[in-house]
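go over this:
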Amino acid sequence: MSSAPGGAGSPSPSRDQHSGSGGAADEPVAPSTGTSGTGTSDTETSGTEVPDADPAAGRGLGGVLRQDEFSVADAIGGPRGIIESALPTLLFIVLFVATGSVTVASVTAVAVVAVFLLVRIVQRQSPSTVIGGLLGVGLGAVLAIRSGDGTDFYAPGIAINAVTLLILLISLIARRPLIGLVIGVLDTRVQDWAEDRDARTVYTRATLLFVVLYAAKLAVQVPLLLTGHVAALGVAKLAMGLPAFAVIAYLVWLMHRALLARRDRG
């Protein structure tokens, strides 16, 4: 869930991950769907993957869950998704360090996301993820320019992380782990997960993995925000964004595939 998500977009445990293109907000948790959503193809109960008409449709957590081999690139949205997610934050860090100007760094980050949005519109692709990123980066830029404090650029993303963590914890307390709800929608083979004790256990543990991820983000980023470490906060955001999401996505994929294998044997 941005965090997704350090792209803009997280939960979404949804990227749309994933996040989208932002520098201020993180990728959502699991529902992050990469650059184009969760994909339109379905998978047979046997596990045979049905090819997608759109090459990007198999990206994001939803697409990866239906694959027999885990792909880091697909999980985090492919090369385009990585660029759209990381570049605004990276440019903000570099320009802030080089010029010391919050305005220059913020305006450039917003301009880059605007270009991403324009390109998607021209190519007649879904702009939804980039719009989310633009809102996150734009809000962060406005806050930073108004205050003159570069750390405010990251405030929306940190707020999203906190809300995401709260939602994850509430879902666990309610015994409806969020990752189970998300995967039940993304993969029709486990739509009945809530009635299956084994599946509930698996997706509870998967949700706990995301709880640890978002709690770690807050534990690292909030002190940096409060102490005004602009560049360090940006680096932490990038390091704990897409790379960390890819690791958690892989672990969730392993747990999901093991559950499907047990169901097939049963």
